C-alpha cells in the first residue's frame, strides 16, 4: 500500500491513524519543499516514530517516485507531507499514477493552516477562494491572485493568502514581503484594496509562538512576526460579531 | 486552562497533542449536536483516552457553560467537538467568554471534512465559499445558500455544501435529501444549475466505508451512499486535469 500522509504543522499533530500506519511501513519518505514545521524538528519526528525517515526533494517526487510506488505493490511505502496532503498538484498526480499502475493507495489527512483560520474570529463560511502570493521573478510575475482577492471582496468574502516559497527555494515568504508584493501590484493598477481592508497575519500556526495580528497594512508592517510558516488574510466585509471576535482573539 | 479540542471524524483522528492534553484534564465534555463520527464510537473514544467523557447538549453549551469555564481558571477543562472546532458560532462565543472572564484557553485543531475535499481530484484553490444546506421548516425555509452556489459558479468555482442536521435534531441530512431540497428551490426559480453541473457526493469521510461519487443529479440520486456524515460538492468549471483526477479517484 502507498500511504500519502499529512503530518500537520508540528510533530504533535500526528494522528493515531498516521502513527499506526507508519509503524507498518518499510520505507518512509518526507518531502519538504512545499512547507516546514512551525515547531519541532525532523529529528524529533524520527524519534517520535522510532523510525528512519528519508528526505526527498521536488525533483524526485515529481520525476522518480515511480520506483517507490512499484514497491508499494508488495510492501508499505509512505510519503509524508507537511500540513494536509493533496494541496499541491504533484501529490494528486502520485495518486493518479497509483491508479494507472494498479498500486493500492490510502490518503491520511493532516492538520493544515486552514484548520486555524477561524481562530482569528473570522467566520469560516465567509472565506472565498484561497490564493497563493508568489514572489515575482525576472521573467515571471503573476498577479492573478490579486484579481481573485478583488473578486472575493466584491462578494464581501475574506481571502486566505498562502505565502509561497521564495524563488531560491530556501526561504518561506514572509507576511511583510507578501505585503510588499501586493503593494507593487496595487501601485501599478492604481488600486487601493489593501489600504481599505482589515488584514490579519497568522504566523507559526499551531506552535507555542503562534501569532494572530489584525490591523491595517501599516500595523502589520510594523508588527514583528517571528515564526513560520506565515499566512495573510485580507478581510472582506466584517459582521459586528466578527469585529468583536477579531478584537478579542487577535493581538 | 480551557481546551477547545477538535477530535476529527473517528477516534483514530486524535492527534498526539489532543491525547497529551486530555490526560491532564479533570473534566472532559463532548458536544455532539453538530456532527457525529464517520466510524468508531463514543465508548471507543473513552477507552482510548482511558477517561470518562461527559456528554453535553446544545442548550448547555450555549447557555450554561459559564460554570465550567470558571472551573478552568484553576483546573483543566476540555470541550471535545467532532471535526475541527470553531466552525460553529457557539464555539467562538466560548472563547470570547473566556477572554471576558479572564479564563486562559487553548485551541486544539482536528481533522475535518475540508481536509478530504481534494481527495475527489478537485483542486482546493478552486473552491469558493462553503455553504450549509438547511432542511426547510414550516416557518423557515432559507435559500440564500443557493445564491452563494450561483455566485461561486459565475466565478467558475466549486461549492462545498455541508449538510445540516434535520430539524428533529436526530438525523444528519443525506445527500439525496439535500438534492431534493436544491431541486425544490431550483423549480421555484426556474433555474437549471443542478442539471448543468457535475456533482460530487462524499460520504463517511475518513472511514473505511468512505465513498466519493461524481456524476449528474440522477447519478447521485441512484447511488447508494451508506455512511455518514455526508457532503455535496457542486462543481464549477473543471480543468482537464481535474476531470482526469475526478474520473480516476471517484467511483
UniProtKB/TrEMBL annotation, chains A, B:
Domain of life (superkingdom): Archaea
Residues that coordinate or bind S-adenosyl-L-methionine: 9, 87, 163, 205, 230
Domain Tetrapyrrole methylase: from-to ranges: 1-178
Keyword entries, A-Z: Methyltransferase, S-adenosyl-L-methionine, Transferase
Pfam families (alphabetical): TP_methylase
An example molecular function term from Gene Ontology annotations: diphthine synthase activity
Family, per entry: Belongs to the diphthine synthase family.
Designated name of the protein: Diphthine synthase
Species for this entry: Candidatus Iainarchaeum sp
Amino acid at each position: 500500500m502507498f500511504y500519502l500522509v499529512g503530518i500537520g504543522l508540528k510533530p504533535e499533530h500526528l494522528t493515531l491513524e498516521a502513527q499506526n500506519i507508519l509503524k507498518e511501513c518499510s520505507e518512509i519518505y518526507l518531502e519538504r519543499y512545499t512547507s516546514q514545521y512551525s515547531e519541532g524538528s525532523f529529528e524529533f519526528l524520527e524519534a517520535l516514530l522510532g523510525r528512519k525517515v528519508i528526505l526527498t526533494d521536488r525533483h524526485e517526487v515529481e520525476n522518480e517516485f515511480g520506483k517507490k510506488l512499484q514497491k508499494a505493490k508488495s510492501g508499505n511505502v509512505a510519503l509524508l507531507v507537511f500540513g494536509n496532503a493533496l494541496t499541491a498538484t504533484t501529490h494528486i498526480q502520485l495518486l493518479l499514477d497509483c491508479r494507472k499502475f494498479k498500486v493500492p493507495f490510502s490518503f491520511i489527512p493532516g492538520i493544515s493552516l486552514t484548520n486555524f483560520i477561524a481562530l482569528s474570529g473570522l467566520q469560516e463560511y465567509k472565506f472565498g477562494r484561497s490564493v497563493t502570493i508568489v514572489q515575482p521573478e525576472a521573467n515571471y510575475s503573476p498577479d492573478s491572485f490579486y484579481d481573485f482577492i478583488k473578486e472575493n471582496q466584491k462578494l464581501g468574502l475574506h481571502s486566505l493568502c498562502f505565502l509561497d516559497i521564495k524563488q531560491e527555494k530556501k526561504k518561506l515568504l514572509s507576511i511583510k514581503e507578501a505585503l510588499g508584493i501586493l503593494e507593487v501590484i496595487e501601485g501599478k493598477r492604481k488600486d487601493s484594496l489593501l489600504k481599505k481592508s482589515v488584514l490579519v497575519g497568522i504566523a507559526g500556526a499551531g506552535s507555542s509562538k503562534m501569532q494572530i495580528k489584525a490591523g491595517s497594512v501599516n500595523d502589520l508592517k510594523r508588527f514583528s512576526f517571528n515564526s513560520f510558516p506565515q499566512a495573510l488574510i485580507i478581510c472582506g466585509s466584517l459582521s459586528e460579531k466578527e469585529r468583536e471576535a477579531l478584537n478579542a482573539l487577535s493581538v
